[in-house]
């Protein structure tokens, strides 16, 4: 196991009816900006619950900013940041999924980047763009934020990262800062019952791939992280099928929600190598073709595993054995290659069973899509991906070529 530090200060408040805890969690005298997405929070009544809780206990001034898109848009977020400065907001409350929480983290970070000489403190578009390009690494102040999660998927509710999309520049870029760990996140699983099936399945797949990108590299004898990761994968396989068969089952929803949070709160990624190739190539597919985040991952992951199966061989065999119970000692003894291929095919079939695409063809894309993706990877300096930093543009190209149609 490699050396590591682990720090995660996010208070998790889990369970039905817990939104009312906002009256204690948000400072009594705060100037709060509630941020939300395209309308689901209003429609489902979650926003009303939030408003009611904030009006209890104390003397908060509450403002609202709606319209944060899935794959949150840079320009929209800067409007929210301007509102933060206009009203001297000192607490952001994100109500929604990964897009709203990520977007609010970005707002929290960039609202201090005002034009040097303007009295009304609008945020400098250039400074904010430069900050995003450098992953927000050099920003040293941020507004406090909390979250009410309505879709289990990204782990944003318990981590310090985010992803922002800039459509005009055709860029979807990640950022990270210890300043944007939420002060708290409320996880009420009943809120997920209103999700369309597509979003539920997207969430299961996103969490699955988060675990895989921290697990499927090479062994460093990290037994806690490996066993934890394998358990999370098995739960997602089981509960993915369960939620499809019985979407109203709250116990299933609870398990999916907590698993997705645990998948990307830093714990299983401590002290182990990581490979975020699938996500980084996937971001380019979203920004060029508007494919849902999770669906880019299910298209790419099988090809990443096939392309890199030599360097990932030990972990692939462990994955086959411990997650898919493929027994190398059974009577029908298979060689290593066929064990690995069986595990990858089972992974693909799992994605398919959730109604997710496993090839570019499934999203009506052909080989003409590849060159522009490679160009964008180069423009965003995604040229040394993977646990060894060996995945250059040629490797990414081969991964994309393998993804044109499903191999299974
Ligand atoms: O916008 P509204 O109307 O709210 O509708 C949303 C949106 O259309 C809807 N929705 C959310 N909760 C609902 C609901 N509909 C009905 N009932 C509810 N309870 O769901 C749609 C998708 O929402 P979104 O927030 O985009 O989904 P998700 O949580 O999957 O977030 C995806 C974003 O997170 C980023 C992705 O790149 C993408 O931009 N990621 C963030 C990560 C992080 N911060 O660590 C890691 C991930 O890898 C991921 O990259
Ligand atoms: Zn993801």
From TrEMBL:
Residue span(s) of domain Alcohol dehydrogenase iron-type/glycerol dehydrogenase GldA: 9-189
InterPro entries according to UniProt: ADH_Fe/GldA, ADH_Fe_C, ADH_Fe_CS, BDH-like
EC number: 1.1.1.1
Molecular function GO terms recorded: alcohol dehydrogenase (NAD+) activity
Fe-containing alcohol dehydrogenase-like C-terminal domain mapped to chain residues: 204-374
Thylakoid is among the record's keywords: no
Gene3D superfamilies: 3.40.50.1970, Dehydroquinate synthase-like - alpha domain
Top EC class for this record: oxidoreductase
Keywords linked to the UniProt accession: Oxidoreductase
Entry keyword Oxidoreductase: yes
Name of this chain's protein: Iron-containing alcohol dehydrogenase
Naturally occurring in which organism (per UniProt): Psychrobacter saeujeotis
């Amino acid at each position: 196991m490699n050396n590591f530090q682990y720090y995660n200060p996010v208070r998790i408040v889990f369970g039905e009816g817990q939104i009312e805890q906002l009256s204690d969690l948000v400072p009594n005298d705060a100037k709060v900006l509630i941020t939300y997405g395209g309308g689901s929070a209003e429609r489902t009544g979650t926003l009303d619950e939030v408003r009611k809780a904030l009006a209890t206990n104390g003397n908060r001034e509450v403002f609202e900013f709606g319209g944060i898109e899935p794959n949150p848009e840079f320009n929209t977020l800067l409007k929210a940041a301007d509102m933060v400065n206009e009203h001297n907001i000192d607490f952001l409350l994100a109500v929604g999924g990964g897009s709203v929480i990520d977007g609010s983290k970005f707002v929290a970070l960039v609202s201090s980047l005002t034009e040097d000489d303007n009295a009304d403190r609008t945020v400098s578009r250039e400074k904010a763009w430069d900050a995003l390009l450098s992953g927000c690494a050099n920003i040293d102040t941020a507004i406090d934020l909390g979250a009410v999660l309505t879709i289990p998927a990204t782990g944003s509710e318990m981590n310090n990262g985010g992803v922002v999309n800039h459509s005009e520049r055709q860029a979807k870029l990640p950022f990270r800062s210890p300043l944007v760990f939420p002060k708290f996140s409320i996880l009420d699983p009943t809120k997920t019952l209103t999700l369309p099936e597509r979003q539920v399945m997207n969430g299961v797949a996103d969490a699955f791939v988060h675990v895989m990108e921290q697990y499927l590299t090479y062994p460093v004898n990290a037994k806690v992280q490996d066993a934890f990761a394998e358990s999370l994968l098995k739960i997602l396989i089981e509960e993915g099928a369960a939620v499809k068969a019985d979407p109203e089952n709250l116990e299933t929803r609870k398990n999916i929600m907590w698993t997705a949070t645990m998948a990307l709160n830093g714990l299983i990624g401590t002290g182990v190598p990581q490979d975020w190739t699938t996500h980084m190539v996937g971001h380019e597919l979203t920004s060029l073709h508007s494919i849902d985040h999770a669906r880019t991952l299910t298209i790419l992951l099988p090809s990443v595993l096939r392309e890199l199966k030599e360097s990932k061989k030990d972990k692939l065999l462990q994955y086959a054995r411990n997650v898919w119970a493929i027994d190398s000692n059974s009577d029908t003894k298979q060689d290593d290659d066929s064990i690995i291929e069986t595990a990858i095919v089972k992974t693909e079939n799992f994605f398919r069973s959730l109604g997710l695409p496993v090839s570019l063809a499934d999203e009506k894309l052909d080989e003409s899509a590849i060159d522009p993706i490679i160009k964008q990877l180069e423009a965003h300096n995604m040229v040394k991906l993977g646990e060894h930093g060996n995945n250059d543009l040629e490797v990414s190209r081969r991964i994309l070529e393998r993804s044109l149609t499903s191999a299974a």
